[in-house]
């Protein structure tokens, strides 16, 4: 017989209090295990929780003693206890190793006992007692039964609490996922980007093998995009039987391999065949928009009601996103039509060839994201580059223009539009020759997409038009249609403008012939005098040098300035400068009250020194652990000392540049509280002034860096400011109805007279040129441009 003990080792009130002090299952199970171990001295204790819906059904929650559980699911004795929830007692003679295979033990077992934890005849768990020194008796089981009676309610409430908490966490997780889905779906209005995003996100959240998106077509649902591997479908095919039925009924479905429709869907597919399918309609304002289909959960199970509910929620979000994207697509089509009408009206309202060409290459930029457009026309059997987007003049000798003209000549071999793109290192084209030519061209030009359209009518081929971009997917279907329509209209407009350009030649020759007749009809002396005067004038124009200047509107650019900001929080103590004072780099402008920062520095320094002293004492006493701790403290306080010193240094405001204080009434800032980042003062560098001179595009070739410049400002009408051209801007800027380039002129400003925003007129000296060049350059350039336009010189 076992020695008689008290019913409980711990008084019931204390035991109940220990249980109530914990809320979760594992801590309460540990209290129960500790009490059971106190009742059965020398025994190892396991406390299990039983849940029939879990795998495994038994899970250990607390252990006392030198023992552990490996696999409770295969325990034969626990399975017996689940069938008959009554106390079980096994002696060493009746035990075999298979009975307790779930226990990892290195000692000989004398006895094993199991006592179920029941509440209203519901099995909640069990206490497992393993004895090594003696065999357990029925009295031991009776004591454990009393313990389970006291702890059953506590264990049940802990299980209910954890289930409720986990349910809340699942709900929060689903809400978070739905919020994330809504953000992702509404992050784009591009239909081509939205559909793959929907499939990818749904597959990620539902954890399926593949997700397919079907859109409503003219007669049937059509598969638009897919994410994952589904060998039973192919892109751009009509929906199958299952999706068609769903589209007609408008209700979500979840089926498994027992459904005959799924067997017909798989057909002869074996590897990767569908064993579970879930689909839901995407409906907007009672109209079916699309169907979302998920196949094969990754864990191999069938889709349940929770999965179907979650998919329905995502479909509601997808419906709004798809509707917004469709509105965006419709708006783009309207914009494309408007642009087409505007461009068509512009090119058909004029017979000016240059204007037509510029409109054709630049007009589509409102609705197309291309990098360069070009038009080349046939002239006397040769293809000549006539217009390039963003360029008013074309330099034929430019290598980029020469390469572009060669590709246009190559594209002219095609009687239909030519579309060539490069994804990675792969050039996609129908012929090997085309791939080779464009591979080299793409390397040289950095373009990744090319689309060219022949310009031809019933009178023959007129030329070719091209668009290119660094993005291979820069054209949509609607934009392809736009270009083809534009090409037809541009052909008519260019043909009419080309014919009209030939007509003015007759009008130009007629006045010349009449003047010749009048000259020949003059008397000999008068004719000789006229020739002599003309010769003198020609010699004067050729050999007489005159200074040539390029004029333009001048504007004083903003001068270099530096904003001085507070780097730490504090109150301004003293201000040492006034507005308009000249200061040098590093000059002290003001300082803040710094006693807090000085105190912080002193405190950090003292703590650093104290930590180093403690480290040295520990090293002296050969205490390596303490020395390491103190060293870490010392390094920490050393860094804090450096930070405190930096903050103290930042209480002083110093000028970062040479210049003039530009802050009004700066002295009134004394006593003002500033926070880190607040502006305190501004210092402007007035030693030099930069003046922007607007130069017309035709005068740009005359300018060079270092040219002398004379500027007269409206504020100083009687004074001339002399400087030099520092740089000529490489890009043009719009000014009124023309585009100009800016020459940056540097002018010394030691007196500080020149101030930002002043305007005036500047003359840039470009050297001495023949009088004829100086006087008639503009007229000559206009004539040359016309001749080049007419004859292609």
Largest sheet: 6 strands, antiparallel
Q: Which outline best applies?
A: flat
Radius of gyration: 45 Å
Helix fraction bin: 40-55%
Number of strands: 33
Strand content: 25-35%
What is the CATH domain class of one domain? Alpha Beta
CATH superfamily of one domain: GAF domain
Would you identify the regions where 5 or more consecutive residues have pLDDT less than 50? Answer: 1-7
Strand arrangement, major sheet? 14-13-18-17-15-16
Summing up helix and strand content along with how strands pair, one would put the structural category as alpha+beta
CATH architecture identity of one domain = 2-Layer Sandwich
Give the termini separation.
125 Å
Fold-level CATH name of one domain: Beta-Lactamase
Rounded mean pLDDT is 80
In brief:
The chain has 793 residues and is of the alpha+beta class. Among the domains are: 12-165, Beta-Lactamase; 186-331, 2-Layer Sandwich (Beta-Lactamase), CATH 3.30.450.40; 352-502, GAF domain (Beta-Lactamase); 688-791, Efflux pump adaptor protein, beta barrel domain (Elongation Factor Tu (Ef-tu), domain 3), CATH 2.40.30.170. α1 (12-20) runs antiparallel to α2 (25-39), α8 (305-348) packs antiparallel against α9 (353-362) and α14 packs across α17 (771-791).
